[in-house]
């Protein structure tokens, strides 16, 4: 009887010991242009989507034109090629209006 309780307790404990998903946070103000330029395409797309949301909120826009996202990302990449030591937020603010 005690053995069954121990086994049941161990099973119950292991059921609650599920590892949590890792949470990844990105501090946008610390990313340099050089780092952004070295990102893979998926990571650059992720940041481009963040930029879209950032500027939509900043400009109180409710409609998003996907062509603008690509164009703005290209502008930021162009700025970053000229100034690799600049921070990405600076590049975003100076190259996208």
Output the number of helix runs.
5
- End-to-end C-alpha gap: 73 Å
Q: What's the gyration radius in Å?
A: 23 Å
CATH superfamily: HNS-dependent expression A
Give helix and strand order, one letter per element, not per position: HHHHH
CATH class: Mainly Alpha
Classify the secondary structure makeup into a structural class: mainly alpha
Largest sheet: none
CATH architecture: Orthogonal Bundle
Task: Describe the fold and architecture.
This protein is mostly helical. It has a single domain (20-95), classed as Orthogonal Bundle (10k-s Protein, Hypothetical Protein A, Chain A). It contains 5 helices and no strands. It has helices at 2-16, 33-38, 41-58, 66-82, 88-95. Helix 3 (41-58) packs across helix 4 (66-82) and helix 4 crosses helix 5. The longest helix is centred in the middle third of the chain and has 18 residues, at 41-58. The protein starts with a helix and ends with a helix. The model has no long low-confidence stretch (mean pLDDT 77).
